[in-house]
């Protein structure tokens, strides 16, 4: 089916990046001085990337790789905010409005709680719709528990304007 016949659609996204201590930390569209950076072709902002995948999936527009693949040099080093803003533009061009996006970061650090409102505002400014952010550790288990990298998941709601 090429397009759904409901006024609402949802999408979800997941992203993982390993830490690279030689890079600055960019997460949830903010800089995190003193925290380990994330490896990637772009700035490694797993929270922004998960939100992009959720938005693209909901709109039936593929995913990060099919929109901004590593074979496209123009996206090398791109910020999470730039990818999110371009993704929201593509979703709106496809005829959808963004209701909201909910993102969860999974990992030990950075601790997001103290800057939650700032990060939500930065991500919402890029998307042009409300973004909510939560975080959790994995109780020391797995690659996030060992501090090897960060994961993020996201859900997006789109509606027909
Ligand atoms: N990177 C993180 C991880 C967690 N938090 C906050 O800590 C709370 C407790 O985490 P648990 O994994 O023990 O459930 C969590 O609910 C977050 O509020 C954080 O800010 N940043
Ligand atoms: C964003 C892109 C493109 O710059 O590169 P990365 O920063 O490596 O991020 P990833 O989450 O692996 O997604 C796909 C890529 O297309």
Could you please describe the fold and organization of this structure?
Helix 4 (116-127) links the parallel strand 3 and strand 4. This protein has one domain (8-159): 2-Layer Sandwich (60s Ribosomal Protein L30, Chain: A), CATH 3.30.1330. It has a five-stranded mixed β-sheet. Helix 1 (46-59) packs parallel to helix 3 (80-93) and helix 3 crosses helix 4. It has 161 residues and is an alpha+beta fold. Helices cover 30% and strands 35% of the residues. The mean pLDDT is 96. The radius of gyration is 15 Å and the shape is globular. The protein starts with 7 loop residues before the first strand and ends with a strand. The chain is built from five helices and five strands; from the N terminus they run E-E-H-H-H-E-H-E-H-E. The structure holds the ligand Nc1ccn([C@@H]2O[C@H](COP(=O)(O)O)[C@@H](O)[C@H]2O)c(=O)n1 and 2C-methyl-D-erythritol 2,4-cyclodiphosphate. The site of 2C-methyl-D-erythritol 2,4-cyclodiphosphate has 13 residues, from helix 2.
């Amino acid at each position: 089916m090429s397009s759904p016949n409901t006024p609402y659609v949802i999408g979800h996204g997941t992203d993982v990046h390993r830490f690279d201590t030689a890079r600055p930390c960019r997460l949830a569209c903010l800089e995190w001085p003193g925290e380990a950076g994330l490896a990637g072709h772009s700035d490694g902002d797993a929270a922004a990337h998960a939100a992009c995948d959720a938005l693209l999936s909901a709109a039936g527009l593929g995913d990060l790789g099919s929109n901004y693949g590593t074979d496209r040099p123009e996206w090398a080093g791109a910020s999470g905010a730039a990818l999110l803003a371009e993704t929201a533009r593509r979703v709106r061009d496809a005829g959808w409005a963004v209701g909201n996006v909910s993102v969860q970061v999974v990992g030990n650090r950075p601790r997001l709680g103290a800057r939650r409102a700032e990060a939500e505002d930065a991500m919402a400014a890029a998307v042009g719709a409300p973004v909510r952010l939560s975080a959790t550790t994995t109780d020391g288990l797995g690659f996030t528990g060992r501090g090897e990298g960060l994961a993020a998941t996201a859900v997006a709601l789109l509606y027909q304007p």
